[in-house]
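task queued by scheduler; priority normal; single chain, no ligands, no partner chains; default sampling; output format set to C-alpha cells
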Amino acid sequence: MQNAGVGRRLMRDVMERADERGAPGIRLLQSGYHNRSFSLYVSLGFAHRATVACVQGPPIRRAMPGYAVREATDADLGACNEVCRQVHGVDRGGEVADALKQGTARVVERAGRVTGYATDLAFFAHAVGETTPDLQALIAAAPQFGGPGILVPASDSVLLRWCLSHGLKVVQLLSLMTIGLYNRPDGAYLPSILY
C-alpha cells in the first residue's frame, strides 16, 4: 500500500477530526530516520520544533546534593501545575492526577519547594523542571526507565551529555512536530510520546 497516498489520507482525517473538535493544535513525534514520513508531515503544514533523543539504560540510582526526590502526593498537584505553567504555558494536571493514582509521579524539591516533577520516567510519561539539574535529580533517582526509554530534547545538550556520561545510550532520534498552537518551552522538560 506504500506510495498510494493512504498515509496522507489518514493524517488528513486526523487533522479534520482535530479541527471538528476545536483542538488548538496537533503535536506528534516522528521517527527521525523516516524521511518519507517527515516529508509527509511538512507537506501537510507541520513545523519541526525540536529533535529529541530517546535514551535508555540502567538506572543511575543516586541522590544529588541539594535536591530531594520523593513520591508525589495529591497535595503536590498545585505545585506541579505551577512548574508546568512556567515551562510550557499550560498545566498538564490531568496527566499528573493520573500518575498520582498510578503511584508513578515523583517530585523534586530544592530549598523546601517543588521545582520539578515527573509523571514517570518512561516513553509515555513527561517531566518538567525549572532547571536542568531538577531533571537530572529526577532521572538519577528513577528506579528504571520504562518502555523504550525517556525522551531528552537534543537542544538541552547539558542534560543529554549528562545522561550519556551516566551510562544511558541513545536508542533513536525523533522529531517533535506541530501544527497550530505551540508554546515554546521555557525551562527544562522531557516530553512524552503523547505530548
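post-processing summary
- Helices lie at 6-20, 35-43, 77-88, 93-102, 132-141, 157-165.
- The two ends are 29 Å apart (CA to CA).
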